[in-house]
Structures are given as C-alpha cells and as structure tokens.
Amino acid sequence: MGRRGSPVFWHTVTQVEFISVDANLRASFRILAEGRPPGEIREFPGVFIAHAGVTFQMFNAAFLSAPVGDELELARRISQAAVFFQARGTPWSFWVTQGWMSEELRRRSSTVFQRHHLRHVSEMPGMVADTLPPLGRGLPSLDVLRVFNEQSRRAFCELGSSCFNVPHTWFKEVFDTGPIWDQFRGYVGYANGEPIATAAVVAASDVLGVYNVAILPGWQRRGYGETIMRAALEDTRRQHPVERTILQSTMQGLGLYLRLGYRTVTKIDVYAS
What we know:
Strand 7 and strand 8 (194-204) form a beta hairpin. By secondary structure, the chain is α+β, with helices and mostly antiparallel strands. Mean pLDDT is 93; it is low at 1-14. The protein has two domains: 13-126, no CATH class; 143-243, Gcn5-related N-acetyltransferase (GNAT) (Aminopeptidase). The two termini are 36 Å apart. The protein has seven helices and eleven strands.
C-alpha cells in the first residue's frame, strides 16, 4: 500500500523493466530534436519535451517522466506541455508509457486527454528481450550498410515514408539531417542493389533500442526484418556491448518479435493534437 493520496504500483520485474523502455524511447527523441537547428529539449517536473520543430506532429513530443497519481496531476502535466507547444504554434503529441500510471488512472486517462483536445491515435506494446536466440533457420541475405551519407539518408527516408504511410517531405524533415546519425544509428538493407529494408538502434539507459524496422511492400514476410535487425544490433554491439534490447511493436511486427523472445512489459499510448 502507498501512503494516503499516493499511487500504488506493482513492485514486480515487469514493473521495473518498463523504465528502460521509456527511458530509451525518450533518448531517441532527444537525439532527433537536438539534431535539428530549431529543436528544443525541456524537462519539467514529471514531463519531458522533445520538440523537433517539424511538420510531423509525432516528433514534437511530450512524455511522462515520473509516476502520476491522479487525474488532477495528469491534467497539470498535459497543460504544461500544451502551453509549450501552443507558444510555438506547432502540432504535437503526448506519448504515455502506461507503467507510470496506476491501473485505475489508466482506465480514466483517455478522458483527461480528450479534455485537452488530444485524440488517441495509437497503442503499442513496449517490449524487452534479454538476449536474442541463436539463428534457428536460414535467413535471406542482405547487404546492410550504416546510414552515413546523403544517398543512404535518402534511401532510409524513402523506405520509411513508404512503409509507415507518412508523407515523404514529413519523414525527410525529421531524418534527412547529418547530426543525428552519430547516435541514432540507421541501417539500410539492399537486395541485389535495391534498398528494401531499414532499422535503427539507439544505445541508452543500459539497453539497445530498436527503431524504424521497415520492409518494402512486396518483400515482407520473408525474413528480411530479422536479417536487418540482427545485422544492426551486431554492428552496434561492436561499440556498445549490451545484450538487452527494447522496442515498441506495430501489429505487423509483433509476430516476429515474439518469435525472437521479446515480451511485453508495458503499453505505450500516443495522443495527438
């Protein structure tokens, strides 16, 4: 039991593990915001803001960064983020790792966001794997190259735009900038010279975060997702020898991640203005 008026959380392994998922996610957004000239980072009590200053509202983002006990406190944090983004005139989003809230508050949280004109647009499993299993079957080969120049950035953006159904100009605005790629390690996979797959890895909070796993339509469900993930992690571990990995799954990728031993430790809700 918590003290009177404080939230009650489960003290289980899963409850602790959500923190690494959340912290690595926020680190990835920090890299993207800091890599652009108009980008801003702000840290308020219980709220982290990574403002990339872009058209795509998902990358002008606020996050919970500490437990929240009740609707009034949640509303205060949303209002603080709203004031920040409204002053800059940019569309924005609020990313909520559910582990920061009690189960009772989770059930009521959508209503609080709706009052602040934020609609629920996505719920993703936040997943952890302590290690990946050895290769159990033959995987298709790819020439996997790290993003390092204008050509590879262009391929990364074109594939991401196509696979995630985002306008190319929006995706390019976020990712077609040189400074981010030292820490946001991007990879493009080529089959017979054609770019067909992407992945990215962020080393932060004692885990490797896997992001932007995308396979060109027509090449999906053939094992290329696993191929590029393993290649990206293997390359990253040469500099960051960490086994534990985290990711946020789409429904399309969930089967692959479950086969690779990932387990869901939290859910991540996204609300958009």
